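Running this now, will post back.
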Amino acid sequence: MTDSIFSPPERSPRNEHGSASKALIASALKDRTARYRFLTRALAVLLGGYLFFDRAFAWIHVPGTPLFVGEFILALGLYVVIRSGEAVRFIRLSLPMQFLVAFMGFGFMLLILGATSNPVQEAVRDSAIFYYGLFAIVLGALVRAWEPAYDLFIRWYTRIIPAFLMIGTVRLLLANRQTGLFLPDSEVLITSHKPGNVGVQAVIAIAFLLLVVAPEVERRDRVRNVLLTVGGLLLLALAGTQNRGTLVAGFIALFAIYLAGKRARPAMGNVLVVLIAAMLLAFAFDVRFDLERREVSISQLFSNITDINVRAEPGTGEDDGTIAWRLELWDLVLDDTLTNERFLSGFGFGPNLAGKYGFYAGAETGPELRNPHNSHLSVLARMGLIGTSLWVALWAVWYVYLWRARKRLSQLGESQKAAVLSWCMVGAMAALINGFFDPSLEGPQAAVWLWSIYGLGSVVATEGTVGKWRSRSATNRQAW
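Update: finished.
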């Protein structure tokens, strides 16, 4: 007994247990950090693939199965954030995420019902309009759980903008040329893309350069930032010659950038001068490229601007056919949806909403359409007034939530994060407007970006709310 008390202590069982617990905690934290880092890189690769290669990247999948690269990374992300418990905590803390969960919950209920009476693969494909919202949970929970993720995403996007502007321009100039090279196990050309998606990404890049980068950029880098912004505007104009919806989204977004970016207005003035000079040179030298759909030229750009008319009548322009058949399809879908049997929950997921009317993508020999060629109308047709109400509510709540948080972050001196919220709002606006003219939000190349922006904006806005609480608590402590 005496020896055991006075002999040099080796290590008591309690000490051993405490050390072992600390070692286990350290190991668990290390493993969790490794998972967060891997997920951050996986999401960056996914978003970069959609950004650079658009539809071609979206169609990369396991041959013979409907497992696409986006769904695989989504499953990985859900595993990481749900296992850590951050997904649940993020949803409980963020009001926009709660509305998103309600929207997706209603969608999953309709998906289950639709899969019982339709082919499962078709029902799942049609439900992309809501289930890509899971990316908002994954990215938002990741940024909240692992602080370096936010800085990594911001730095990553800043660095890849120049490459995107170059590759996006080349892809538009290729204009879906028939190269004869297809992705394995598909009929998708490796050059396939949607001009509207490229145009929206150009708007997102312009907004980032003006709202986030320009106010913080050092003097020696201002010229580079101005030139990149001009490059983004030229890419937007290039996409606008091929897609009128892109022009509408671009004009509204640029006006929003001007209103939100007071600190960036000097840079916007410089950008405007350089842009006008570039367009005058293009007009003077009659620069034009003949593409598969429309030519790229200054005259075609202004023709698209002057011909924007949602209710154009047949015979009023060379492209009225593309407007007329859309309006006809929209009217038919609306008439069928707003009936006593369908108006509450819609047609659900699985039924072909366009093919039954005999509509095809382009000519009659083209692929059969499944949706009304309008993402917002797809929500109404497939989810009825209940789903549409949730869709409108989640975006209204998100914008109000971010707008208020933006003011709070500015008051707390977090000007960069306030600017990121402005960027998120403008980027989402461009994507939502483009979704009115094109079913872009039903494809991963546009939807994953939109919902990632939704998640990033939600988590940064939540930090603004928490920051307000901390500020109030500090004030109260000082008062006591």
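The two ends are 55 Å apart (CA to CA). More later if anyone needs it.
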